[in-house]
Amino acid sequence: MKRFFLIAGIVMCGSLMRGHSQQAAGITYNLKQCIDTGISRNLVVNQNGLQVKSSEIAKRQSRLNMLPDLNGSANLGINQGRSIDPFTNGYINEQVNYSNYGLNSSVMLFNGLSMQHANRQTALAFEASKMDWQQAKDNLAINIILAYLTVLSNEDQLAQARLQADLTSRQAQRLDTLLKDGAIKPSDASDMKGQLASDKLSVLNRENAVESAKLNLCQLMNIQYDRAMRLEKIDPAAYIANYAQTPDEIYETALKQFARVKSEELRTRSFESAVKVARGQLYPRLSLNGNVGTNYSSAATQNTFINTTDVQTSNYVIINGSNSPVFAKQNNFRNDKIRYSKQLNNNVGSTVNLNLNIPLFNNLFQRNRVKLAKLDVINQTLTEQSVKIGLQQDIERAHLNMTTAFESYKTLIDQVAAYKESFRAAEIRFNEGVGNSIDYLIAKNNLDRASSNLIISRYDYVLKTKILDYYQGRATW
After folding, report:
1. Which domains does the chain have, with CATH numbers?
2. Residue 15, pLDDT score
3. The pTM is what?
């Protein structure tokens, strides 16, 4: 038994250690996982999704409004004292239990095609809401891409800063050894120690920048900040190429693919249908109506024949000088209550009618509704034009920024290559005791700064190309 508990304890400890190790290692996300997680958990996106469902219900209801309606009614009650017998419509003075039931239905045959246009209006509004939902997801996706690339850029800069600090640390150790041997000036060693402190500070700043970028990414994904999270690396060099499309080509594609533009176009068409809905209310309305009803009354009775008897009347005849009474035949009846089910069957009645409603004058209410609907169309048209103009301006600005970023990237490549050669020469001179620490540190700082700028420029160009892809409705991951 002791051996069993010992083995169980070892297994449990091993499981806990593996779980802790996995937690310490953090979860690794790729770009698609980050975007999918953000879209599924973002509250604004989910609210837009609910709006789509609401618009879908409105669309379905608009179509169902064209079907006939069917309604039932039931009425039960007790009358006491003088009242009208619902069976005979005569006055009675007794307690009466009564009930009536009915079904009625109506269908609109013609109302100026308002229902047909309303159906089209809600269908277009539904499609517009789907585009709004897509736009919300696209906006979140491009922000997550920006945050993702920012994390990778800062991680690359952190790796670069650590290499720089490691190089400086090795130089500082070498100079300490030379200083002890009296081979160099004390100022050379102190300059290098100062540079080492500066490089360590740069590493701390880069580490803070990485965690700040991770925090921003986690907030966009709406997940708890995880310091140990890892991001799958991408090779920005694979995206470095001259962007082929011109601003005009991108704009023409965006007009067909960009969700915001399609949403505004659909909404404009929806408002145009709303004008036709309002105009249809100016026409006569023809409807077909029908109803079926029956009722019951506890006062309802019927006479049932029993037999025929001879009954002496007050009349008489004189026979042989004497009065003889006159007898007459009399039918005898029994007064019975009519059964509930029988009354319902016997009292069934139905009506069918056509109803024509011609609007002659209603304080110009409908005509003003038409005018307001036309103003809504004009306003929405201006909104659509504003969105398209803003889109064109944004694309032109984004394309200019992309071109600038590409030229900067190519320039920085040449700069880094030049500074590498300059630093290599300065390092050789410094290590051989020919050069001084000032020249060495200047060459090193120039190379470090250019290398950091190259990393930033590389990711900046990738982001600019992703923004242009975003305007064209392309999957950007």
Report:
1. 24-67+111-283+359-471 (1.20.1600.10)
2. 44
3. 0.78
